[in-house]
Amino acid sequence: MKNVTEILTGKSNGAHVPLIAGPCSAESYEQLRTTVLELREISNLIAVRAGVWKPRTRPGSFEGIGEHALQWIQKIKEETGLKFAVEVANSWQTEAALRAGIDILWIGARTTVNPFYVQEIAEVLRGIDVPVMVKNPIHADLGLWIGGVERLRKVGIRRIVAVHRGFFTSGTSVFRNDPKWEIPVEFRTHMPDVPIVCDPSHISGKRDYIFEISQAALDLEMDGLMIESHYRPDQALSDAEQQVTPAELKEIMTKLVRREELPENTEALEHLYELRHQIDALDHQILNLLEKRKHLVESIGELKRDHNITILQFQRWFEIVKDRSQLARILGLDEDVILEIFQLIHRSSIKIQQQILQGKTTDVQ
Ligand SMILES: C=C(O[C@@H]1C=C(C(=O)O)C=C[C@H]1O)C(=O)O
After folding, report:
1. By Cβ atoms counted within 10 A, which residue in 81, 155, 176, 353 is the most buried?
2. pLDDT tens across 150-199, in order?
3. Is residue 312 within 6 Å of ligand 1 at its C-beta?
4. CATH architecture group of domain 266-357
5. How far is CA 238 from CA 32, 40, 205, 235, in A?
6. Helices in the chain by DSSP H: which ranges?
7. CA distance 218 to 127
8. CATH homologous superfamily of domain 4-255?
9. ipTM value greater than 0.95
10. Which residue is closest in CA terms to ligand 1's atom 7?
11. Which of 290, 297, 303 to mutate to test the pocket of ligand 1 (most atoms within 8 A of CB)?
12. CA 183 to CA 44: how far, in whole Å?
């Protein structure tokens, strides 16, 4: 687990799961203060989140208190000594947040989608040492997420944390936003030194799923959690259904299981290595079989070239799909995954045969 606590607050917080929590929006001084005082009871808490400017899909919804709420934050910061994080979506909001001494800024999903906005914010931050969290863009465009981080790095921001808040779904998921776990995993392979915090509130859209998603995030080695909490969630002016009370949040945090990357028990560790050894052997067999398959595809390609036969053979391909799906089902394998693997293999076969028919060598696939 990367040290999100140190990056965002400059302090360390032991082996806990770092938690950033607070209301979706700062609605009133009382609401914010009561929530924060209750949240202080959770030992994982490293910073408070509070929306000041709220980007809403359609006008007419509560769009945040605006700059005035920064004064409440300042007062509560003084009283509690806690660090506060605020979302900024453009240059003047960034300037106002910095003037108010906000400790951590975050760039929201609706801003990460737009490189112009991210750049505008980055320009205000040039030469300033403030930690910034970058939420994934609304749709699953990994490049924009990485690009957001790169824009901040280019102006000298060093303390950066990515936030996974899920991706737009047109109502096809039980969740408000589709987690698409493969995207943060992919993000990690591109930017291994940037910690990722999961925001289960925005993924779930419903408080009942927050524990489940938080646990899934920890099991994928995410480095912390960002969760919306309100002392009276049902009366919240925004995101009422997904906010939990500080007491509920405390319970969620206690129930979460922090799993280690490797078992401490030496017997279990040896068993793990033995099983991995067997997987290595099987993977090598898979690769050797793929190499043999490739040679057959090449021979068929030469035959097609010499006898003027089309590369793509739908009838044969449909038979393969039917046969391999059926076998996958019998073997208890995930049919969709097996189909995807065969689609990739088929795509590669087509490419190999195209090269043969065009008279090129087939080294590159
Ligand atoms: C190998 C062939 O060419 C293509 C590749 C296929 C494959 O990879 O199995 C199947 C059908 C064709 O679209 C073939 O015609 O059999």
Report:
1. 353
2. 999 999 999 999 999 999 998 778 899 999 999 999 999 999 999 999 99
3. yes
4. Up-down Bundle (1.20)
5. 14, 22, 11, 9
6. 4-9, 29-39, 68-80, 91-99, 109-112, 115-125, 142-154, 182-190, 200-204, 210-219, 246-255, 266-306, 314-331, 335-357
7. 33
8. Aldolase class I (3.20.20.70)
9. yes
10. 346
11. 297
12. 26
Q: What are phi and psi of 231, to 5 degrees?
A: -70, -20
Which residues does residue 132 pair with via DSSP β-bridges, in sequence order? 105, 160
Strand partners, 361: none
Structure confidence at residue 364 (pLDDT) = 46
The candidate with the shortest Cα–Cα distance to 165, out of 243, 231, 110, is 110
**In angstroms, what is the span from residue 231 Cα to ligand 1's centroid?**
61
Nearest atom of ligand 1 to the alpha carbon of 346: 8
Tokens for 173? 């998921």
Which region holds residue 75: left if phi is over 0, alpha if psi is between -120 and 50, else beta? alpha
Q: In the predicted model, is pLDDT for residue 14 greater than 80? A: no
**Residues forming CATH 3.20.20.70 domain(s) in the chain:** 4-255
Give yes or no for residue 300 CB within 6 A of ligand 1: yes
Q: What are the start and end residues of each CATH 1.20.59.10 domain in the chain?
A: 266-357
**pLDDT tier, 320 (very low <50, low <70, confident <90, very high otherwise):** very high
What integer pLDDT is reported at residue 353 of this predicted model?
A: 98
Q: Verify whether ligand 1 is closer than 6 Å to residue 295 (CB atom).
A: no
For the Cβ of 356 lying below 6 angstroms from any atom of ligand 1, the answer is no
Best of 309, 313, 323, 350 to mutate for ligand 1, by most ligand atoms within 8 A of CB? 313
Q: Specify whether the CB–CB gap between 119 and 150 falls below 8 A.
A: no
Instruction: Say whether pLDDT at 362 is over 80.
Output: no
**How far apart are the CA of 306 and the centre of ligand 1, in A?**
16
